[in-house]
Write a structure and sequence with these properties.
The chain is mostly helical. Helix content is 76%, strand content 0%. A two-stranded antiparallel sheet has the order 1-2. Belongs to the SEC15 family. Keywords: Exocytosis, Transport.
Length: 821
């Protein structure tokens, strides 16, 4: 039952659902019927639904049939009317066709005209569009053409600006065109091309300034020299008028003044003189000699392109390389002044360019970079100058180099570079300059001394006399009173040496100019250098002349006179230095001149050389001595060699006593040198004769030989008594031969008893006879007696004499032994 009820209920629900679906199909649009049909097929009762659908279709067909039957008559009427209308429509169609044919025939020309009009309109529209597009494109093409033109004319910075304008203003308006895309693609290439071309211009610029550094530096140094000349003129002439002509006249007068007052003007190099033709023209600056526009353009271009730092680094790197090349001196720079000048010109030119870039390029280089370069340049320049200046042996070249360094320093100081180290180095070069001066003046002194005739200067008239007086400070009232012709006591080398000492002082003063030294420092430098000249160079030259083998006694005497006068002139040299330095000699720490000592030493050396030469002459005569030591009897006169020796001594000392000159000099020569020389000669002669008598080669001698030797000694004593040189008191000169005299008297008189009895007493007659000397001579006579007197042993007298000799010899040995004990 329950199952039947449930089946019935389900059947009712299905029927109701099918009814709903049918209504929905009837009322729904055909396009939306899909979901409704899908619900039917999703269910399980679609067969029943199809039955109901067919039943509903049959119901609708019956209703349609009923409706058609009801309206059939009206339909037939409508068909009839429609057939009538068709006939009328056919007529209308034929009329329309005819009308259309006529219209087509009549409007054919109009259609052609309309087609032409259409084409014209189309062309007009195209032309208008083309004009509009060209209006947009032409400025782009014009800008591009302008860009190319600027690049061709190497106006790279304007080209870069044009490129920026083209890229950001014009190309965006026509970016859809193909040629614009090509331009856009070319823009980076154009930028690179501009960079490359501008960099090439920069390289050309760097090469140009490298080549022109010499000229730029020369110009800058000339400007500095002109400024210094102008400063000197202003300081000398406070009231300066306007105009270049006045400037030129003042410069000329100033130069003339300098030439007339400078004692070494003939040795000046002239490197600092400004040429006359340049005085009337403005000296061009660095910007006039070099076109700096490439570096500015390149800097702007790289700045616009955002690569300024790259450009700065490249520029500084290249300039550092150029600086190292500039600072590398040529190997032969020291040979000529032009080598130094070119070296300095290049350095000055380099830094003048950098200074100009520093002040005009807005940061391309900075002060730190310039200072770094200058420190490197300063150290390398000083090292190079130290090395190359050490090769300079010409003081004129060293002086010119100093002037060039001062101008170099002043030039760079004018551009703000510190140059104190250069002036410190000049003080080092000053020492080298002094050394070269000393060497030069040493040669000058040698030439003067070698060419001198060592004779008093004769003067035949007042003009020559005043000329000598003007050259050398000499005053002698007695000489002034003498009539012409007359002679100065000194030879020509005295005024020449004196003037050369003054020239040396001027040369020292010349170097100290423009070194910013105080008067005290200049005075000290001059005095020290002059002392070196006197104590080292002049002293050595005098010593060389004095020690020279061919220098005779007359020359040595003249040297003594000359050095005496030069010694007296030292006070005038002191006054001369004081006048040119304005430093009083009483000032604290003032160096004194050592000229007095130098000339005294030279005079003493000459005196010693006189004594030595005399002794050497005596030795030469003594070498001619030819004694017959075995002679039985003496000759009737003194030996020939000794007679000649005495004659030589007489003539020599006669020269000493007839020297010209004032009273002081004459008394000095005769009273000191002549007396000392005479005493020295006599002592040396006495000593040499004693050595000749006692020399080991003379093993035997006879009494006759001793008597001949006595004659020679008597000749020497006669010479001493004759007073060859005035001034000796009594028999002072004879005392030189006292040893020989007492020894000879002892042997000739055979007075041994007196000698042995009085030996050792102050009043002994033979006080100067040494027992050793007596024993040596006695042994030689004893040997002679033994060998020559074969039969002496058979003679009582000879035997007694031999015994006496033996006894005396024994006693002499006893004296010698007791003396040594």
């Amino acid at each position: 039952m329950e199952r039947g009820k449930m089946a019935e209920l389900e059947s009712l629900e299905t029927a109701a659902e099918h009814e709903r679906i049918l209504r929905e199909i009837e009322s729904t649009d055909t396009a939306c019927i899909g979901p409704t049909l899908r619900s039917v097929y999703d269910g399980e009762e679609h067969g029943r639904f199809m039955e109901k659908l067919e039943a509903r279709i049959r119901n609708h067909d019956r209703e349609i049939e009923k409706m058609c039957n009801f309206h059939y008559q009206g339909f037939v009427d409508s068909i009839t009317e429609l057939l009538k209308v068709r006939g009328e429509a056919q007529k209308l169609k034929h009329q329309v066709t005819d009308t259309n044919r006529k219209l087509q025939s009549e409007g054919k020309e109009l259609v052609v005209a309309m087609e032409e009009l259409k084409q014209c309109r189309l062309q007009q529209r195209n032309i208008s569009a083309t004009v509009d597009k060209l209006t947009l494109c032409l400025p782009v093409l014009e800008m591009y053409s302008k860009l190319r033109e600027q690049m061709t004319s190497k106006r790279h910075y304007p080209a870069l600006k044009t490129l920026e304008h083209l890229e950001h203003t014009y190309l965006p308006q026509v970016s859809h065109y193909r040629f614009c895309k090509i331009m856009v693609d070319n823009i980076p290439k154009l930028r690179e091309e501009i960079k490359d071309v501008s960099m090439s211009d920069l390289k050309d610029f760097l090469e140009s300034i490298r080549k022109h550094s010499d000229k730029i530096g020369e110009t800058a140094m000339k400007q500095a020299q002109q400024q210094r000349n102008l400063d000197n003129i202003v300081s000398q002439h406070p009231r300066i008028g306007g105009g270049k002509k006045y400037k030129k006249d003042v410069c000329a007068s100033s130069d003339l003044e300098v030439k007339n007052t400078s004692p070494m003007s003939e040795q000046d190099s002239g490197i600092l003189d400004v040429e006359d033709e340049d005085d009337d023209e403005e000296v061009p600056g660095a910007q006039d000699l070099v076109d700096f526009s490439p570096v500015y353009r390149c800097l702007h271009i790289y700045s616009v392109l955002g690569a300024r730092e790259t450009f700065e680094n490249y520029y500084r790197k290249q300039r550092r390389k150029q600086a190292r090349l500039v600072l590398q001196p040529p190997s032969n720079m020291h040979e000529t002044l032009d080598g130094y000048r070119k070296y300095f010109n290049q350095i000055v030119g380099f830094f003048v360019v950098e200074d100009h870039i520093l002040h005009t390029s807005q940061g391309l280089v900075n002060r730190a970079y310039i200072d770094e370069l200058w420190e490197m340049a300063l150290s390398k320049t000083i090292a190079a100058l130290r090395t190359h200046s050490s090769y300079c042996s010409d003081p004129n070249l060293v002086l010119d180099l100093k002037n060039l360094i001062v101008l170099f320093a002043d030039t760079l100081q004018g551009y703000g570079f510190p140059v104190n180290q250069l002036f410190d180095m000049l003080l080092e070069i000053r020492d080298q300059y002094s050394d070269t001066l000393l060497k030069k003046w040493s040669g000058v002194f040698r030439n003067i001394l070698d060419s001198d005739n060592y004779s008093p200067i004769p003067v035949a008239n007042e003009e020559l006399y005043k000329k000598i007086i003007g050259q050398f400070p000499f005053q002698d009232p007695e000489l002034e009173k003498q009539p012409f012709p007359k002679k100065f006591p000194f030879s020509e080398f005295v005024p020449k040496v004196y003037n050369q000492i003054k020239e040396f002082i001027y040369a020292c003063l010349k170097f100290s100019e423009d070194l910013h030294l105080s008067s005290t420092e200049v005075d000290d430098m001059i005095r020290k250098s002059t002392n070196l000249l006197l104590t080292r160079m002049l002293s050595n030259c005098l010593q060389t002349v004095i020690k020279r083998r061919n220098t005779g006694l007359t020359e040595l005497v003249q040297i003594i006179i000359n050095t005496t006068h030069l010694e007296k002139s030292c006070k005038f040299l002191e006054e001369f230095i004081t006048n040119i330095t304005n430093v009083l000699p009483e000032t604290v720490h003032t160096t004194k001149l050592y000229g007095t000592t130098t000339f005294k030493d030279a005079r003493h050396a000459a005196e010693e050389e006189i004594y030595t030469n005399l002794n050497q002459k005596i030795d030469q005569f003594l070498q001619l001595a030819d004694y017959d030591w075995m002679a039985a009897e003496p000759g009737s006169k003194a030996s020939d060699y000794l007679v000649d020796l005495i004659a030589f001594l007489r003539s020599t000392f006669a020269v000493f006593t007839h020297l010209p000159g004032d009273v002081d000099v004459h008394s000095t020569m005769s009273g000191k040198v002549a007396q000392t020389a005479c005493m020295s000669a006599c002592k040396h002669l006495s000593t040499s004769l004693m050595q000749l008598l006692l020399e080991a080669e003379v093993r035997q001698l006879t009494l006759g030989a001793l008597q001949q030797f006595n004659l020679d000694v008597e000749e020497c004593e006669q010479f001493a008594r004759s007073g060859p040189v005035p001034g000796f008191q009594g028999d002072t000169l004879q005392l030189a031969f006292i040893d020989l005299r007492q020894l000879l008297d002892l042997f000739i008189q055979w007075d041994w008893s007196t000698y042995l009895a009085d030996y050792g007493q102050p009043t002994c007659k033979y006080l100067r006879v040494n027992p050793t000397t007596a024993l040596i001579l006695l042994e030689k006579m004893k040997d002679t007696s033994r060998k020559n007197n074969v039969f002496a042993q058979f003679r009582k007298n000879e035997r007694d004499k031999q015994k006496l000799i033996d006894t005396v010899a024994k006693q002499l040995r006893s004296l010698i032994n007791s003396h040594h004990l």
